[in-house]
Amino acid sequence: MDLVWICVISAIIGGCTVGYFARYILRQSAGTEKIRELSGAIQEGAMAFIHREYRTEIIVVIIVAVILGLLGLATPDLGWKASVCFIFGAICSLGAGYIGMNMSIRSNGRTTTAVQKSLNQGLRVAFRSGAVMGLTVVSIGLIGLSIVYLVFHNDPYFLATIPAYATGASLVALFARLGGGIFTKGADAGSDLVGKVEAGIPEDDPRNAGVIADFVGDNVGDVCGVGADLFETYVEAIIAVITLSALAVGVGIVTNAQTAWYLPMLISAGGIVAAVIGSFMVRVSEKAEVGVLSRALRNASWVATALSAVFSFLIIYFLHADLGIFWALLAGLIVAVIIGEATNYYTSADFKPTREISQASVIGGGATMVRGFAVGLMSNWPVVLATAVAIVIAFKFASFYGVAVTAVGMLSTLGITLACDSYGPVADNAGGIATMAGLPAELREKTDALDSVGNTTKATAKGFAITSAVTNALGLILSYGVAAGLVTISGGKIAAAPELNLLSAPVIVGVIIGALIPAAFVAMAMKSVGVTTGLIVEEVRRQWREIPGLREGKARAQYGKCVDICTAAALKQMLAPSIMTILAPVLVGIILGKFALGGFLLGSLAIGFIFANTLNNAGGAWDNAKKYIEAGNFGGKGSDAHKAAVVGDTTGDPMKDAAGPSLNIMLKLMAVISLLLAPVLTHFGGLIY
Amino acid sequence: MDLVWICVISAIIGGCTVGYFARYILRQSAGTEKIRELSGAIQEGAMAFIHREYRTEIIVVIIVAVILGLLGLATPDLGWKASVCFIFGAICSLGAGYIGMNMSIRSNGRTTTAVQKSLNQGLRVAFRSGAVMGLTVVSIGLIGLSIVYLVFHNDPYFLATIPAYATGASLVALFARLGGGIFTKGADAGSDLVGKVEAGIPEDDPRNAGVIADFVGDNVGDVCGVGADLFETYVEAIIAVITLSALAVGVGIVTNAQTAWYLPMLISAGGIVAAVIGSFMVRVSEKAEVGVLSRALRNASWVATALSAVFSFLIIYFLHADLGIFWALLAGLIVAVIIGEATNYYTSADFKPTREISQASVIGGGATMVRGFAVGLMSNWPVVLATAVAIVIAFKFASFYGVAVTAVGMLSTLGITLACDSYGPVADNAGGIATMAGLPAELREKTDALDSVGNTTKATAKGFAITSAVTNALGLILSYGVAAGLVTISGGKIAAAPELNLLSAPVIVGVIIGALIPAAFVAMAMKSVGVTTGLIVEEVRRQWREIPGLREGKARAQYGKCVDICTAAALKQMLAPSIMTILAPVLVGIILGKFALGGFLLGSLAIGFIFANTLNNAGGAWDNAKKYIEAGNFGGKGSDAHKAAVVGDTTGDPMKDAAGPSLNIMLKLMAVISLLLAPVLTHFGGLIY
């Protein structure tokens, strides 16, 4: 029997668990009429956006698929297969995001209702909604890959075809993250800021026309966008390892290509089982406090990780692969935990850096900005150094194959880490609904507590996300190097083409241009959020001014208008950065040649890594610095320090929720496009070099 | 006769012009007693800072010199020579900055007085003060280099010794830029912000205790710091070309090493003569308007550049060097002009990007930040692409030697471009003195107009600075590659060691860690300014509270206290980033080996380039967006939009005047330290790779 059927079985186990959890959630009470009404408005807006977003995405996917098919003419028989895999990857990604979001928009009102009974009830609904997302992503991811594998693995072009599956997923993810990010941050900042411009419209007030758009944004950005993001992360990590199989065989750490293909897929299959076991462990007594809930989540997460590590060891052992691979994987896990803790140090108000930002806010907005920016940049220290250590160790033990496997190890338990991460927006929405439905304020406190429950696991998840993104992108770049013939394996050693030397003109120019693209990408994403924010501010002000009775709370605001504006703006503006991401590696490859493209990918990885980190952590620190002031420090809510901290938060939001996370996707998308392009480039060469 | 005597002669011509201009300035009236008193206070503060700063710098210089001497034990006879050159380079740099600043602190009051007669008189005093700085830098730079050349050029270790001269200059420059930057921006933001914290203390008001520190900062930062910066830029560009001489001979673009050494020095000598001619051309009729003055400056600058290009052609021709070198140089000049114009587009309020920041400020501080940040990042497009084109062309025509010569070509007319740049702070100080001395407001308008006169030339100067920094740093990295044996030249072709391939573990880890250091450096610089700002705010508030009669303008503020605080803070905080800059390449080289160090340097160059650009241009755009609002747009001064724009400006100031410009120096300092370290690394290898 082909061992890949094990993957299919474990994906089915994951799928059954999804069904069980979904049934559980849908059986819960959907709440009072008011709650159902609000929840309904959010559902309506979210579905409207998703349908329009998907339509745009499908058009782009079809265009790219056709181009891929045409490029395949260079190597006959490859083209259409790549197109098919590409479309299949895109569909799987769209499906995973769709299912996850469909669950979350049904869970928010139910969480509001459940939390009225007990914190534990609320946690269970919210967490299981997150688990549906998490397990859906990994199950669809693995079953999709298994199908591609079973259909194509005897094809001579298997290794050139399979990256197309990841490319499809990656492209959809970029759109979803960007589109969702622009939508959610534009709506969020727009509805928050309007109070400052047109005094008297408070945030989260039903009379604020932007408020439903804000909630919709949480779902389309933080749930659907994140789901698509992690779907691509998950499948791309596995595919990077598979495409490095020849290298692994060449340097002698696996006995044959088949083993090198099985390995990442089986590790992921083990991870799904571990995640399912972990997610059933999240049970506590009805009267549990926040601390207990938090520990339950953390323990579940740890158990899943430990189980997955054990499974990985067994898989490596029984496949007769080099045990060095396991050490590489283990080093990666340890480093990721360290990075998570370090990131937490820089962004949590429990520690000095974030508190210093709060303190600086007393001086004014400029001081808040300068300090927060410094904290974000400073947080690169532990992250970069630890990642460098992970790369050095992984490489020593299992060459580049080991580096790529590291990412798979970290992502294997994604089913549960994603669950811990993505029930946050559900809890957040539940709180928003509680406020809007006029429920007592302590309910909001409970949902806020719920949101904070997963903080420790979230920090670890963040560490995993960062480290896996870099090791995965690196794996893809190396795959590109192998595919394009930049490096070859002979006599157990990796040899490089002489033109690939670091100090050759094409490589230098490539590295320098590579550094440009992430910067330009961030610029576009930030500007898009800024533009959308402006539109929402205008619209909320207009309604406030023009709708009679709105001020007095007698008339209803036209929430749909704001949702429409955000939708149109997000869809329009996600296109330019996405197209740049697709075109940049193609143009560099065609004009400057395959060696420059190698430099381009490494340059963009190095700077993109720093940018993503800085944006995420500066944003996180500003957010928590504001919350620290709101908790009554340095003057508390409404003080000048608070106003300054709000500036920091508004700046940090698009950084940490739109630009930063999209960067990780775009880095990998560029790498995987280059990988697909490799056969063409080897054929034709570049115009200049 | 050794052709280097031509350099000595042209440096003497430059020196005589300095003497002539200095005599002219000192003959002008020093103004009323009040003006002399204020000017005296600025002089006193500036000298006090410089003396303390120099003391700290000298200690570090001696320590590094001793270490250099000890490292030289690896290659006997090299050590002490490197130490001597290093100290000599440091002394020359210290001297150039000292002379320039001594002139500027004597010119500010005189400019205030002269501008009362006519705008032209004011321009002449201020411009000649700038020209003293510019010509001092190039004359001392070239004569110092000539001395090193004449003493050591027959030494077998000449090429390993001469970079030490640049290292000395570079280290001093880093201290001066950082220390000066922290001082000036801390004082500036501190004295500006205090009004917001303790309502009622206006900016530039004599009762504001921080105001003299602010003026002192202009001199120690924008004059002395900039002078040291450009001194190192100038000599380092020449030295990068000299150290690539073997490569130039190897690929056959010069006939012998001697020619390759003469070439950059003679081009610089020609440039000094061109700059002297240009600076005497800045003459207009007494009643000239701003437009005429502006054109005069621009014409002078163009004539000098054109002359220098002609001289360069003749030098290349008569040295029988490959004419490709000239085309490389010319391409660099053209690209630099394009970059200057593009930069101007992104940062001037005459164009859309900056105006959009002003417009976004209506929404609030967060919007200002997001938009400004996006503009800064976006401005990388033209800069990076144009630089890439320059590198491709220069390399095609004259290999890496051509890339390095490009920087020399751009910097040859530094004497005049620096003059156009550095009379700005003099005009600014003159205006401040006018306000504080209670002179009529229209005088301030005149000095502001004076400040704006050089805007076009400044844009070009900025383009030159960016392009030359990158091409120069690249030249140094390549020199390192040659010196450390990473690349060798055989049969007219450049060959690289196989371990230098881009996709080897050491190079990848090197590139990733390389990207970290500029980010950490910016973080430290930003935080330092933030801390200093906080201290000044506290002190100004304390004086306002505790000094009886200060509010009513009867008692005098203790300006000296603020100067002392800035001095102590700047000196303390410039140490950490500087030491990191020195240690980073050393540690990477020792631990990860010479190949990783190559990757490290290229990684830091790529990201440092983007960071420097982004910080400079975002800062510039925020500054001008604020001014655009102050000019009466979007609500004008005092409006909410203005307050938001002030947040942008306060954030941008440390970016564009402390962190950004220091980055260029640190990139080159790391490269030149690696170059010095190359013989040691070749001897011992790294610990891991």
Structural key phrases:
homodimer; 689 residues; mainly alpha; two-stranded antiparallel ribbon
Q: Could you characterize what this model shows?
A:
2 copies of one chain form a homodimer. Chain A is mainly alpha-helical. Chain A has one domain. Chain A is built from 21 helices and 2 strands. Chain A has helices at 4-27, 33-71, 79-117, 119-152, 158-161, 163-197, 211-243, 245-250, 257-280, 290-318, 324-347, 352-360, 365-378, 380-411, 414-422, 424-436, 441-453, 455-483, 505-546, 559-630, 640-684, and strands at residues 487-490, 493-496. Chain A has a two-stranded antiparallel ribbon with strand order 1-2. In chain A, helix 6 (163-197) packs antiparallel against helix 21 and helix 10 runs antiparallel to helix 11 (324-347). The first copy, chain A, is globular, with a radius of gyration of 24 Å. The mean pLDDT of chain A is 90. At the A-B interface, helix 6, helix 13, helix 14, helix 18 and strand 2 of A face helix 6, helix 13, helix 14, helix 18 and strand 2 of B.
Concise structural overview:
By secondary structure, chain A is an all-alpha fold. Chain A contains 21 helices and two strands. Chain A has a two-stranded antiparallel ribbon with strand order 1-2.
SSE layout and pairings?
Two copies of one chain form a homodimer.
Chain A (H helix, E strand, L loop, with lengths): L3 H24 L5 H39 L7 H39 L1 H34 L5 H4 L1 H35 L13 H33 L1 H6 L6 H24 L9 H29 L5 H24 L4 H9 L4 H14 L1 H32 L2 H9 L1 H13 L4 H13 L1 H29 L3 E4 L2 E4 L8 H42 L12 H72 L9 H45 L5
Antiparallel strand pairs in A: 1-2
Helix pairs in contact in A: 1-4, 1-9, 2-3, 2-7, 2-20, 3-4, 3-6, 3-7, 3-16, 4-7, 4-9, 4-15, 6-7, 6-19, 6-20, 6-21, 7-9, 7-14, 7-16, 7-18, 7-20, 7-21, 9-10, 9-14, 9-15, 10-11, 10-17, 11-14, 11-18, 12-13, 12-20, 13-20, 13-21, 14-18, 15-18, 16-17, 18-20, 18-21, 19-20, 19-21, ...
